[in-house]
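Renewal narrative, Specific Aim 1. Our central claim is that a sequence can be written position by position from structural information alone. The example that follows is taken directly from our test logs and has not been curated for this report. It begins with the structure tokens describing the chain, in the order in which they were read.
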């Protein structure tokens, strides 16, 4: 036995000595050595030609290919941009006989007797007709762009766990920033699995880079500016992002990544989290106008690295190329990340929307009551319809982010009171992060059990009333735990000049797969709903003008006053009808939190710990 193992050891040493004398020409060769000859080896190449920025070309090289395998374009859990629509010139090449068939919109089947196969296709970038580009969607320009992840690459369905190398053929003067692992070649990167590859967007081009280290972990900032962008204080940005990172890691105790990359883009809106990177739209004008909003978005999206990516709903699979998956616990993933975006900024001494936690809670309560869907629809029901097209909840349009944030705020008070201020919602978040690793995930009921174990109290009645079912949160009951009460009053909404504000609670949108526009409502009590309009009505014209885009309604809304009439011609169930809407005002809530009389020492202590961010 010893001699046999010794012989194997000598063979391995000699083999790698030979490699040292004759180094691997291509990184993909290392994969071939690591795996048996029956194991498929995958390599990707993405080419950008600045002479044709309408799209980019992708090649997938498969060695040791199975006789039959499938390639798919993955579906994101939140944003399904259906990039299979933009796949052009798909072809499969081999020295042996080969054929392919498109089995579904996002699925291709390859059949071949050959072992070495090359798949080629082009992603033709859609022309974005809006004013600002969504930050997570690919784009190309003369100075750079965003490529990679599930918007660019297909994966082998039967071999999703296989690692791969990705080569980028881009202009020599362009840099690359991504969460993918780097190699000795600046244009070649490594992905440990298809899941990793699909979760790492790639910023290419001429951009600003800065870096910092927190707890020994390298973090990079890559900022792609528009050609005419104004300069800004990058040192201030780096310093404040570092504060956000430091406070977040301090909360959890460790980071779920070995390195992290912030991909900031000028001329774009929105943000999207990934396992070790994030894409965030960050116009340079933001630095001069509203840095508070900027830091809130950064803190929220960075917190998602733990709460949504590493700590994910169990209903979400690693990779999926079918319909988007739904999860009942999304109110926790989204809402608590909003909750902590405010809390992390306060702990980092960075600007926040509201000067104090009390004022912030007052604003939350006002927003909660401003949209009746927030208490007419349960957080779990909202979670299941989140990121879906309007209409799944009728004319209600609750905010799963706000529902989650305010529910979490009340749970925080319950936990603090039950544990005599020993524990808080921080401890529940940490407990869930370690108890439900990414490969396991959590279900909605796991949140209740985690709260129960932490506070040692009966959390079921709270979850039954306010999470699983729809009831108005009893703010008096839970604010009493910190010696406070809230008074809610309703008055006619007015503008800054004191003039009554018209009810503009309506929008139009284009449903997936349709060319026309539909009505979207958020409140069945609005003047639009009372006049007879409903979500998903097909809009033919507004004030006898054909609807050519969302701006058709927006332009009308800008000049509306109370008493004005708006004529809608809509089609419902294939029947056309005219609906005349008389614009009215509406009432808005005001919440004022004040002290209770004769508060106890316990109430005062819990309030002080809560207020001082402990």
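The sequence written for that structure reads:
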């Amino acid at each position: 036995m010893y001699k046999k193992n010794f012989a194997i050891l000598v063979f391995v040493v000699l083999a790698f000595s030979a490699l040292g004398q004759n180094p691997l020409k291509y990184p993909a060769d290392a994969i071939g050595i690591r795996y048996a000859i029956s194991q498929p080896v995958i390599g990707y190449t993405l080419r950008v030609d600045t002479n044709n920025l309408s799209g980019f070309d992708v090649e997938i090289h498969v060695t040791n290919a199975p006789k039959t395998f499938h390639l798919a374009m993955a579906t994101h859990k939140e944003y399904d941009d259906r990039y299979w629509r933009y796949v052009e010139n798909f072809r499969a090449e081999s020295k042996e006989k080969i054929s392919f068939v498109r089995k579904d919109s996002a699925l291709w089947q390859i059949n071949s007797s050959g072992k070495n196969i090359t798949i080629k296709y082009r992603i033709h970038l859609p022309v974005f007709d809006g004013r600002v580009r969504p930050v997570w969607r690919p784009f190309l320009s003369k100075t750079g762009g965003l490529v990679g992840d599930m918007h660019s690459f297909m994966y082998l369905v039967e071999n999703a766990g296989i690692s791969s190398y990705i080569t980028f053929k881009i202009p020599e003067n362009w840099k690359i920033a991504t969460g993918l692992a780097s190699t000795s070649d600046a244009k070649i990167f490594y992905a440990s699995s298809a899941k990793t590859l699909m979760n790492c967007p790639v910023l290419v081009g001429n951009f600003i880079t800065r870096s910092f280290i927190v707890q020994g972990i390298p973090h990079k900032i890559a900022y792609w500016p528009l050609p005419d962008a104004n300069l800004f204080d990058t040192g201030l940005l780096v310093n404040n992002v570092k504060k956000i990172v430091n406070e977040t890691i301090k909360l959890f105790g460790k980071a779920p990544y070995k390195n992290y990359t912030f991909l900031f883009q000028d001329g774009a809106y929105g943000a999207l989290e990934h396992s070790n990177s994030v894409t965030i739209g960050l116009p340079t004008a933001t630095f001069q106008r509203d840095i508070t909003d900027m830091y809130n978005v950064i803190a929220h999206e960075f917190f998602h690295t733990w709460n949504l990516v590493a700590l994910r709903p169990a209903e979400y699979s690693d990779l999926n190329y079918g319909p988007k998956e739904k999860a009942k616990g999304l109110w926790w993933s989204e809402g608590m990340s909003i909750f902590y975006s405010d809390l992390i900024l306060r702990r980092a001494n960075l600007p926040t929307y509201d000067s104090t936690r009390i004022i912030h809670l007052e604003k939350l309560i006002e927003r909660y009551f401003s949209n009746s869907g927030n208490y007419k629809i349960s957080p779990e029901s909202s979670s299941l319809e989140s990121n879906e097209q309007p209409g799944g909840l009728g004319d209600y349009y609750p905010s799963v982010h706000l529902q989650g944030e305010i529910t979490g705020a009340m749970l925080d008070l319950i936990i603090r009171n039950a544990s005599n201020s020993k524990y808080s919602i921080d401890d529940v978040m940490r407990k869930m992060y370690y108890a439900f690793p990414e490969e396991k995930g959590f279900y909605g009921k796991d949140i209740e059990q985690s709260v129960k174990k932490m506070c040692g109290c009966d959390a079921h009645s709270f979850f039954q009333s306010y999470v699983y079912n729809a009831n108005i949160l009893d703010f008096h009951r839970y604010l009493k735990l910190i010696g406070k009460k809230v008074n809610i009053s309703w008055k006619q909404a007015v503008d800054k000049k004191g003039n009554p504000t018209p009810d503009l609670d309506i929008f139009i949108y284009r449903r997936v797969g349709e060319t026309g526009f539909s009505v979207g409502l958020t409140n069945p009590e609005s003047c639009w709903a009372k006049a007879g309009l409903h979500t998903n009505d097909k809009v033919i014209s507004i004030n006898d003008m054909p609807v050519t885009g969302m701006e058709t309604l927006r332009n009308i809304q800008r000049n509306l006053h109370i008493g004005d009439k708006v004529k809608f011609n809509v089609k419902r169930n294939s029947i056309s009808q005219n609906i005349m809407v008389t614009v009215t005002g509406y009432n808005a809530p005001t919440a004022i939190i004040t002290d209770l009389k004769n508060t106890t020492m316990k109430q005062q202590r819990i309030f002080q710990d809560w207020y001082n961010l402990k």
